[in-house]
Amino acid sequence: MPTIECEGLTKRYGDVVGVDSLSFAVEEGEVFGFLGPNGAGKTTTIRTLLGLLSPTEGTARVLGAEVTDEGALIEAKRRIGYLPAHLGFDEGLTGERVLDHHAAIKGDERRGELLELFDPPLERAIREYSTGNERMLGIVQAFMHDPDLVIMDEPTSGLDPLKQERFHEFIRAERERGTTVFFSSHVLSEVRQVCDRVGILREGRLVALEDVDDLLSRGGKRVRVRLADPVSRAAFTIEGMVGVEPIADGFRFTYTGEYNALLRHLAEHDVIDVEIGEPPLEDVFMHYYGEVDAETAEEGAAGSVTELEGADA
Ligand SMILES: Nc1ncnc2c1ncn2[C@@H]1O[C@H](COP(=O)(O)OP(=O)(O)OP(=O)(O)O)[C@@H](O)[C@H]1O
C-alpha cells in the first residue's frame, strides 16, 4: 500500500482551479519532492492530503486513510508530521511550551536529538523569534513524535545556508531510517540532493513525475568550449546540442547526444579549452516552469531535444 495515493484529485476554489486531476503515489520510505512555480497548487495538494481542505473531485489516501474520512484521518495523523508554509504558532508562547503542547497531543520521542541539530531559543516567546528560528521549531515539532510520514511545505524557506545543509543531511538520514517524506520546494538543488522522485506541478496539473536520476541523466551535460579558429554557430552545431550560445572564442551548450560523437566533432576543431559540467537540471525545470502548455511539457519529459531547445529560446 502506498503511503500517499491520489486519484484524480481536484480542488477548485469557486472558479479558480487549485489542483486538477492529480494522480500519483508515494511509496513507503520514499523522499518525494513536489515542485512547481508560485500558484501551481503545491500548498493546495498538501492541505488536501491533511484533510484541511476537502477535494472537489477525486480521492486521496494517506497511510491508508481516506482524507474525507475524519475518524480514519485523525488516527493516521498521529503517525504524520506536518510542517506548514506559514507556521502560525501562538505568539505569546515560548518555544518550549509549543513543543510541550505538541508532545501532549502527539508524543515526544526525539525532541532532544532534534534540538541538537536545530536549536531555536526555546526559552523565548515566539513573537521574538526570527523566521529561521521559527522554521527550526517547526522542524523539531514535525519530527519529534517520530512519525512514519512527514509532509512539509517549503521546509527550508527562511533557513540560512548552513541550516539548510544540515536539514538536507538530516533528511538523507531520515531516508535511511525509513521515514517517508513528502515536501514542496522551489529549490532545485535541494530536490536533487535529497529526493528519490520528483513531481512537477504546473497550473494545477502534474506535468512530470519521475526519478531524479532519470531527470538528471536525460538532462544532458553542460559544455563550454573555446576554439582557436572562428567558426559559425551553424557550422559548429551537431545533433544533440541544445541552446548553442556563442561566448568569447567559442560556444556553450547543453549536450544530450553520445559522448564519442561530440569528441569526434571537437577533434575536427582546434580546441583551446573544454569544460563538461553538471547536467543542467535548472534548464529541465525551467522547461516545465516556462510559458509552454502542459501538453508540450509532457513531450519534453519524454526527452525531446527540440522541446528543450524551444524552452531555452
Ligand atoms: N483560499 C483560496 N481561495 C481562492 N483561490 C485560492 C485559495 N488558495 C489558493 N488559491 C489558488 O489556487 C492556486 C494554487 O495555489 P497554491 O497556494 O496551492 O499554490 P502553490 O504552488 O503552493 O504556490 P506558492 O509556491 O506560491 O506557495 C492559485 O491559483 C491560488 O491563487
Automatic annotation (TrEMBL):
It comes from the Archaea. The keyword Transport applies. This is ATP-binding cassette domain-containing protein. The keyword Chloroplast does not apply. CDD domains: ABC_DR_subfamily_A. Keywords: ATP-binding, Nucleotide-binding, Transport. Coiled coil: none annotated. Belongs to the ABC transporter superfamily. It holds the Pfam family ABC_tran. Residues 4-228 form the ABC transporter domain. GO terms for molecular function: ATP binding. It comes from Halalkalicoccus tibetensis.
